[in-house]
Amino acid sequence: MAPPLLYLADIALTFGGTPLLTGAGIQVHAGDRIALVGRNGSGKSTLLKIAAGEVEPDRGERFLQPGTTVRYLPQEPDLTPYATLGDYVREGLAPGDDPHRADYLMAELGLDGDGGTKTLSGGEARRAALARTLAPEPDILLLDEPTNHLDLPAIEWLEAELSGRRSAIVMISHDRRFLSRLARKTVWMDRGRSRQLDKGFDAFEDWRDKVLEEEETASHKLGRQIVREEHWITHGVSGRRKRNMRRVRELAELRSRKAGETRVQGNVALATADAAVSGKLVAKLDQVSKAFDGRTIVDRFSAIIMRGERIGIVGPNGAGKTTLVNLITGRLQPDSGTIRLGLNLDTLVIDQKRQMLDPAWTLKDALTDGAGDMVAIGETTRHVMSYMKDFLFLPEQARTPVHALSGGERGRLMLARGLRNASNFLVLDEPTNDLDLETLDLLQEFIAEYAGTVLLVSHDRDFIDRTCTLTLASDGKGRWLAYAGGYSDMLAQRKGAEGPAPRAGIKGARPVETGSAGRETAAIPGGKAKPSARLSFKQKHALETLPAEIGKLQADIARLRTALAAPDLYAKDPARFARYAEALEARETALSDKESEWLELEMLREELEG
Q1: How much is the pLDDT for 26?
Q2: Contact between 324 and 301 (Cβ < 8 Å)
Q3: What is the model's pLDDT at position 128?
Q4: Fewer CB within 10 Å, N side or C side of the chain?
């Protein structure tokens, strides 16, 4: 085999008294595609910076073949010294590089080379950094989270671009689909050291679990051996002094090995405060439209969202994902159409763009809102140090300012802040940014077990596949289309669709198309419209009267809850308290039945009317 282009061996580095790397290394050969994976804080980005020559290790060897060119994509690029995007991108070219390559990449990534750099969004800065890194044709590309802040079209373009490159590539990413498609080798950063698997990312997780299982078995055997030797030292029959001293020294060596074992970092303990159960209906949108500055963002969108659904929202940046979420949650009023929200909704929005975090806060203040040492979680409290451990923060990090946290740590902090609050309608806006694979697995399990309804905005295709039962996708013209299942299911349904793209609501989401008379009719096999049918008089009457009945029950429930909340009611009049509680239970049962009846009739009406 030809010698490696880049070689790192026995790399050690300590930050703030804590060893980060203790024996890490990597070899990059021509044409390699290496996924560099590991928990947040395991030293992946630091090792990549050492490989790029930007950080000097405390110990170890770095060798770069003479004449080898390297380009490095940082996780947080700094564009402030440059007046325009074009200046920033072209400055990355070396003598002899094709200057038109920079213009081509900016065009492909939707960037204006004459645009300024002062007010860029995270996605624009990331695309500019990609254009600068990819414009040359280096021997080695070092990419730190290249998909962060990119929308799905940009991620898929990047996959195709990198697949056609001759450069060796070392990439850090938490996008499973991205790594699966590109990586041919995997380097795992674990407790300061690196381990290499000469297979792609698809084989990594099974291999990692096997390695950890073997370590646990070996550690258990070592512990049992120490117990046996200690028992011999204490209770064994004394023999020759020389033999006794040898076994004493062997026991000391065993204890030293045990003490030198590094524990695997624990998992995040995700849990949310308990909230009351919402009504069966979460939201009903009927022919809702919204436009900004003459551009239609949502065009005649209809949907019925039921309790317990997991809905993914996907689309390119600027398609209106946030606008659609705000309409569904009732935080934004439509230009036309109606929105009806269900009963007893406690909505929690976790914005992973970190806009809810003040950089000047300390970690402790961010969790307690600056109010002492206790964290309020619903109606209970916990000490901040205990709560920090659930999200893998160390006690010594309590006074660390938010701006000094890594991207993954800020992501975990956002989850920790959000999950303090009781909710039954959870909105997650890009929750996967910067989170490691193990935390993503736990977040996936949390969503699956969450008792309420979930809206998920994400560009992580694998995460959507693992969590969502329905996907809403933009067609780029304001129409939002519903597809059963996750992202892969959406692609399969799009490929299998014939004729114009469908427009559909969520419940009863069959494709709809515009007929010759301008009326929408349900599409069925054979291209024939569904035969017309009508609701019975009794069904029509129920549809007209049920909303008033539901409203009256909601008012009664609110009144009874207010009465039961009186602190002295039970002490003064236990019989009245019991009557109110019984009446509340009866009305809540009646409300659930009325809502179910109305929903069934409304869905039937929509199906019959197309």
Answers
A1: 95
A2: yes
A3: 92
A4: N
Task: Give the model's pLDDT for residue 272.
Answer: 62
Single-letter amino acid code for the residue at 543? L
**Model pLDDT for residues 417-437, shown as the tens digit of each residue:** 888 888 889 998 888 877 778
| CATH superfamily, region 281-346+422-527 | P-loop containing nucleotide triphosphate hydrolases (3.40.50.300)
Lowest mean pLDDT among 43-57, 302-316, 574-588: 574-588
Kindly report the number of other CB atoms within 10 A of residue 589's CB atom.
Answer: 11
Q: Are 360 and 401 in contact (CB under 8 A)?
A: yes
CB atoms within 10 A of CB 193: 18
CB-count exposure of residue 421 (10 Å: 0-12, 13-18, 19+): middle
* Cβ(186)–Cβ(201) below 8 Å: yes
In the chain, the amino acid numbered 51 is A
CA distance 253 to 259: 10
d(CA 346, CA 335): 25
In the block, residue with structure tokens 């094709």: 98
Say how far apart CA 188 and CA 180 lie, in whole Å: 15
Reported as a pLDDT band with limits 50, 70 and 90, residue 352 is low
Cα 418 from Cα 366, distance rounded (Å)? 11
For 486-583, list the strands marked E by DSSP: 512-514, 520-522
Q: Do domains 6-206 and 537-609 have the same CATH topology?
A: no
The SS3 assignment for 371 reads coil
Give the SS3 label for residue 296. Answer: strand
β-pair partners for 195: 188
The pLDDT value given to residue 13: 92
Across 1-10, 526-535, 547-556, least confident range? 526-535
CATH of the domain spanning 537-609, picked from 1.10.443, 1.10.287, 1.10.10, 2.30.30: 1.10.287
Distance from C-alpha of 295 to C-alpha of 586, rounded to nearest angstrom: 48
Rounded Cα–Cα distance for residues 494 and 446 (Å)? 29
Cα 308 to Cα 290: distance, rounded to the nearest angstrom: 26
Report which DSSP code applies to 515.
-
Minimum mean pLDDT among 264-268, 306-310, 332-336: which range? 264-268
Q: What topology is assigned to 6-206 in CATH?
A: Rossmann fold (3.40.50)
Question: Domain boundaries in the chain?
Answer: 6-206, 207-259, 281-346+422-527, 537-609
Instruction: Write out the DSSP string of 336-390.
Output: EEEEEE-TT--EEEEETT-TT--TTSBHHHHHHTTSTTEEEETTEEEEHHHHHHH
Compute CA distances 354 → 125, 350, 410, whole Å: 16, 9, 7
| C-alpha–C-alpha distance, residues 407 and 389, integer Å | 18
Range in 98-102, 451-455, 560-564 with the lowest mean pLDDT: 560-564
Q: Are 27 and 6 in contact (CB under 8 A)?
A: yes
Least confident of 40-44, 65-69, 175-179, 485-489: 40-44
